[in-house]
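Researcher: We're reviewing a set of sequences before deciding which ones to prioritize for further study. For each one, I'd like a predicted 3D structure that I can look through quickly. This is Lipoate-protein ligase A. If possible, include the structure in token form so it fits the rest of the review sheet.
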Amino acid sequence: MSLWNAQSDAPLSVEIEVPSGDPAADLERGVQLLRDVQSGERGSLLRLYRPDPTLAFGQRDVRLDGYEEAREVAQQLGFAPLVRKAGGRAAAYHRGTLIVDHIEPEAEAVMRQQSRFEVFARVYANAFQRLGVNAQVGPIPGEYCPGDHSVHGLPDGNSPRNYPVKLVGTAQRVVSGAWLFSSVFVVEDSSSLRQVLDGVYQAMGVPMDPTTVGAANDLLAGLTTEAFVSALLEEYREHATLHGA
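Model: Here's the predicted structure for Lipoate-protein ligase A, in token form for your review sheet.
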């Protein structure tokens, strides 16, 4: 029995992708992979990539009066405005972030939906802790795209910034017989993310504290996305057999 799938110990196929240059296509590929796993064409997989600048709105954002203005803000700041099919509020990402799509077949996929948020939050916090980042599970006041199982980081006396910051946002899509757990890890270059999210949330009239927008290297100077990828895969190996990594 795996940590995240009570019905399977199947190996995880790891695919590290290069962004296509088309943020919409990169977002849609996760949904297509979910369909492939649902149909049995593919097995359990872990997809990792560093995305082009994207502002991914949630389904609720689209219904807000300020949504069109928020889209314009994102475009003006160089972030492609898209609407994701998983839940949550607006989130921003770029090459200093890592997106991980974990996709598994599971007959009763909806039954463990809540527990997956809890399990993956612990796994992700542990990955950051391997690198010396004081990562904890839970929301911080005023965070963007708030969630009970966000992962945040706390500064220490040597941190470049002196605020707790959100490090990981997660969303989940469940279909009959399979699930997609999608996560964004913010590792480098938080300033452009802070600028675009502040503008977008103001346009939508959604309260958000821009100081919560940060990156892991705001807490641990010099940390790179490549180092985090290695730490994350090391943490995964504690719970699964990985193929291709």
